[in-house]
Amino acid sequence: MVQNGTEFDELPELDEAALRLFEQVLAAGALERGPDTDGDPAVRALLALRLLRPAPDRPGLLVPASPEAAAAEALGPLEARIAAAGERAQATREQLRALLPKYRAALRERDRQAEGERLPDLPTVSAMLGEQAARCQREVFAIQPGGGRKPVRLAESVERDLALLRRGIRMRTLYQHSARGSLATQGYVETLTAAGAEYRTAAELPDRAVVFDRSVAFLPTRSEGGDGNGAVLVRDPDIVGYLCRVFDQLWATAAPFTGTSDAAYREVGDDLRRALLGMLAEGDKDEVIARRLGVSLRTCRRHIADALLALGAESRFQGGVFAERAGFTAPQ
Fold it and tell me: Are 312 and 322 in contact (CB under 8 A)?
């Protein structure tokens, strides 16, 4: 910033020599200008600070100026610029503060998405599933652990699922091997497979999940003793992305399932037996094994008895040892 050829940040200090000269000029009333005075640092300082100025009618004569007028002339423009900068700073501060409500609202929405929207009961879950299905653009996948699904639940979802397939939506579902023994599930899978859906089964799966377009996920509510009939709707991209990776990994190693077949259960018998023997080797109780395999306790105990007989083992412990020695519990 320049005022009358002087940089504001280069204004000289009023040192002792300049003060003495100013006092002398005040006493004399004026100072003749000449080669010696023009080269004097004290004179240059007083001129820069506007404490000396040429007389109106005699340019070669320097006269003292009022310090108040000198301050106004030398510093006034700088102070005006500082004031203008302060006003701009305050205006910018107010503009930024005006964004605070939007910022806080975005944080609340992000937290809400991370926490998820709780759907308290089955009717609410079904309604929201229908809404998301109608919005679905590309694909939907589901993880359905446990045995065969209840016929009433299958009947509720078949038309919705067929409508998705007619729209060209890719549909994939993972069941446990135990679902192959359910006639209702077999029929449902056969019907949907004919329409383009894909199904696979695995010996063991994590909890239920339904994901639409890899952006919206439904997860069961299990906290605080919940029965799992409610759900939480999750949109957080990190959580949904993790679920997608889990599904893709499980899908890659699962066995295709196309529905009704007398051999449907036998097709995965070896894999089911391997999983069961691995759980025996781990020392799991019957109830735990039944839950992990998605079968009833009675069916689980029958499978255990058959496996022990095939191994020639007389006890669960011995069966686990024999299975481990035979390599049945090693990862495939």
Answer: yes
